[in-house]
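Folded chain entry
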Amino acid sequence: CHTADLNAVMCHRSINYVADMLEIKYGIPWIKINFIGAQATAKSLRKIAQYFDEPKLIERVENFIAKEMPEIEKVKAQVKKRCEGKLAMMFVGGSRAHSYQGIFNEIGMKTISAGYEFAHRDDYEGRRVIDDIKVDADSRNIQELEVKRDETRFLPRKTDDQLKELAAKGVTFKDYDGMMPDMDPDTLVIDDISQYETERLIEIYKPAIYCAGIKEKYAVQKSGIPMKQLHSYDSGGPYAGFKGAINFYQEIDRMVNSRVWKYLKAPWQKNPELSAKYVWE
């Protein structure tokens, strides 16, 4: 790993720590990227190409994007007709609750509420708040690893002047703005959501789809709402990159526009779990 020229970080919650260590030890800079959604994928590819500043690589990236986008736009236009204006909710780990908002936007869907289970403030508000984060009981339970420069292998990939020049062009290093700046003012950010809060949100906002992990799947579906598992590809996928975006558009289209959900009734809607009467009756 010490021979790499750049680290591209997809998940800010976990891999950013490893990227920081690699930069300290070997001098490898890191940038935040996102390959979920066509627009985010194109932006990330251009960012990587811009870092290396090689005309042939930049040209290859632009040609590749130009080749992929017509099919993307065709499928997106078809799906957007049926999905535009519908609401999505996302409560997943890593950066997924943020990463997937862009791809929902591409088909006209709005993320009305999102959050994480194990997030820190910088995941929500961006790395600018890191210096203000106070150590709490949970943080003390995590072992802190001290990494030092490897004097035999440390090699800065760019000079300070080159890094400043790239930053002036929009290539930022060790930076992440967080999820909240990309969300509309009338949306909700909820950390470590409970089952009760989940049920109330579904009842109030009636989202077209709820995205979470496997443990929420059946409870959400019993509410008559399709649940998309984003922790792994238990069905469908992959969703990264250009072809992945098409897969996601089509799968969300099938899920939110299926008529089966309106006919679904949870067991407790048909028969109460317990029946009783007052003793004096």
